[in-house]
Amino acid sequence: MRRIVYRLVRTSPPTTRDMLSHGAQRKPCPRPRDPKFCREWAGLSVFDSYRGAKWLGVDFSWRHGEYVAELDVPDGGPITCAEPDHKGHLLLYGADGEMIEVDGAAYLLSRVTRVLHGPSHDE
After folding, report:
1. How far out from the chain centre does Cα 35 lie?
2. pLDDT tens digits for 32-87?
3. CA separation for the pair 116, 123 (Å, rounded)
4. pTM, full prediction
5. By CB neighbour count within 10 A (0-12 exposed, 13-18 middle, 19+ buried), where does 41 fall?
6. Which residue ranges make up each domain of the chain?
7. Which of 4, 6, 110, 114 has the fewest Cβ atoms within 10 angstroms?
8. Which of 61, 26, 28, 64 is nearest to 45 (CA)?
9. What stretches of 10-78 adopt beta strand conformation (E)?
């Protein structure tokens, strides 16, 4: 089953960096002694609805990006998806369950179906 997911991005069109998690961007995990948090830090944060992504944008004053990219992620590809934990939040990983690196980010860019300007778009 394919999934349509939404991610805050900084630019339209999005760049490879927009499709890398904090961990993949080599930002140090703020809670390095918490394995569960470190695992989430490595995952690419997405939402199962436009509304969820926009909520995050508004909640964080659009610091993570003013655009919302819609991605069509099919099953069986190089990306796996962790089920939502709360408020429709999901984490994407590589097919091996590890952090998505540059090649995986390039694949995700090819799966972008549209990009909306969050502050000015209602859906």
Report:
1. 20
2. 999 999 999 999 999 999 999 998 888 878 888 899 999 999 988 899 988 766 77
3. 10
4. 0.91
5. buried
6. 3-112
7. 110
8. 64
9. 44-47, 67-73
